[in-house]
Amino acid sequence: MIFKKVKVEDAPGAILAHKKIGKDWSIKKGQILTKDNCAKLELIGIKEVFVAILDKEDIHEDEASSWLASEIMGNAVEVTVPFTGRCNIISKTNGILLINEEIVNKLNHVDEVMTIATLPHRSSIKKGQIIATIKVIPFAISNKVKTRLLDILLVSKNVISINPFKKKKFSLINTTSSSLKDSLVLKTTNVTKNRIENIDGVLVSVDSCSHDIDAVSHKITKILKLKPDMIIISGAHVSVDRNDILPMAIMKSGGEIIYYGMPVDPGNLMLLGKVNDIYVLVLPGCARSLSKNGIDLMLEHFSINSKLDKDFISSLGVGGLLNDTSVRRSPRENKKKYEKVIGKDPLICAIILAAGQSKRMGSNKLLIQIDKKPLIRVIVDAVINSRVDKVIVVTGYQEKSVMNALHGMNLDFVFNEDYNKGMSSSIKAGLDYVPDGFDGVLICLGDMPLLKSKHINDLINPFYPNANRSIGVPVYYGKRGNPVLWSNKYLKDFTNLSGDIGAKDLIKKHYSNVYEVEFYDDAVLVDLDVKDDLEAYNLN
């Protein structure tokens, strides 16, 4: 392949190296020039163009990427039509991604012109998800490169494949106690059902019983008659030893304990048993959350292999520190702990709303780069560095992407299952997660790029949660903005909110206790809803 400048009249059949734009047309780079293309170029005064001319043995980028994709694709995947030297491999089913990492690395080492990028080996995959992309960097590859790639592929052609989930049947036992709320039991059931459906499984029965050996053993014996593939137990109390109530109940049912604990965080306190060849999986406390934890790894493996044992569980340590462990809430946090740190100052918990779908923006606005950082991280930085004592981020749409953008920050995450129902659902989801002992809650939007720690501190300073300054509202030239600081005594009023309606009516209701803080910049008013907002505030 040769790159050179040629006269426009000699360019037909060559590949355009750089995009050209006319008044109402454009010719993209990589396009093979036609006589009509060249005529348009001449009309706007272009006499010469930089082009690529292929040798006889060169293989065009689209042909090359499509060829390599078809060579490495394995079970349950398909290849998209190539475009500008790129070809994607897509999963045809839900399952676990299997990558021959050694072969991929060897192929990428052949020549810089040909690249293969994949999702991590053993990723959980949804039908239609892109799992790999093949990209030819220049406009063609040489036949010599193709020959070297073929030599490697003689060893293995099934390089990228999907191991589909098998439709397994599951039964759930929730144990109860006087201190366990019914709402938490229901949440656990819903979260577990969601987890099972994610691996194409079916929850065939849900039972409950008291948290004692005899009651649980009786339930296990009864459920065995249904012949599920696995029994899952969510305990009112987490098992802390092999001799605790739930493992003893498994053994009383005639079963055995296969493994207690796992080298995955969150998920350490998992327990696996077996009764009459049916696995019994006892959940750790983290399994009440939709966030990825060790239970997901166990269920995924069971779905595709039908076998769980000590060797598999003990092999999970490498990669077992899951992404959200640094930001999840400690269950031992309580009011007393915070009081020791904060003293007499009001204790403030911030809720940052990051669950919306950004329909008006056209893409997730929280991931837009502002000063080389995702927008949501800019907001969280401001809140964390303020007087706020605890930060909760409510996620929903593109949960994993938002969490990844905030990786390593000292946060708690709450997933709002009803994020498509509007802002109010996110507010209520966040409020449900606020621990006892906090004096005030700061409700922040996730799309306010100009907000600084100083704005937040200036709003908190006059705050008296039990007096007539118990609702703090920022103001700019008489117009109220965000965030808003609320005393904990008003939080029960939020239960009646619905849709995208915030708390304006509640502010009116308690107007006598509202204090306004005047700001001299518009940071408390600026949020990003549409693309024009980016240009208006020079943030793109």
Question: Can you walk through the features of this model?
Answer:
The chain has 540 residues and is an alpha+beta fold. The chain has four domains: 2-53, Molybdopterin biosynthesis moea protein, domain 2 (Alpha-Beta Complex), CATH 3.90.105; 59-164, Alpha-Beta Complex (Aldehyde Oxidoreductase, domain 3), CATH 3.90.1170.30; 169-322, Molybdenum Cofactor Biosythetic Enzyme, Chain A, CATH 3.40.980; 335-536, Spore Coat Polysaccharide Biosynthesis Protein SpsA, Chain A (Alpha-Beta Complex). 28% of the residues lie in helices and 25% in strands. It is built from 16 helices and 30 strands. Strands 21, 24, 25, 26, 27, 28, 29 and 30 form an eight-stranded mixed beta sheet that branches. Strand 22 and strand 23 (373-374) form a beta hairpin. The longest helix is centred in the middle third of the chain and has 17 residues, at 182-198. The protein is flat, with a radius of gyration of 29 Å. The model is unreliable at 324-343 (pLDDT under 50).
Question: What attributes characterize this protein structure?
Answer:
540 residues, alpha+beta, Molybdopterin biosynthesis moea protein, domain 2, Aldehyde Oxidoreductase, domain 3, Molybdenum Cofactor Biosythetic Enzyme, Chain A, 4 domains, 8-stranded mixed β-sheet, 6-stranded mixed β-sheet, 28% helix
Taking all residues together, what is the mean pLDDT? 87
Low-pLDDT segments, ≥5 res: 324-343
Largest beta-sheet details: 8 strands, mixed
Helix content: 25-40%
- Assign the CATH superfamily of the largest domain: Spore Coat Polysaccharide Biosynthesis Protein SpsA, Chain A
User: DSSP strand (E) fraction?
Assistant: 25-35%
Q: CATH architecture of the largest domain, please? A: Alpha-Beta Complex
CATH topology-level fold name of the largest domain: Spore Coat Polysaccharide Biosynthesis Protein SpsA, Chain A
What is the SS-derived class?
alpha+beta
Number of helices: 16
Computed Rg? 29 Å
Number of strands: 30
For the terminal residues, how far apart are their CA atoms? 37 Å
CATH class of the largest domain: Alpha Beta
Number of domains: 4
Which overall shape is indicated by the principal axes computed on the Cα atoms? flat
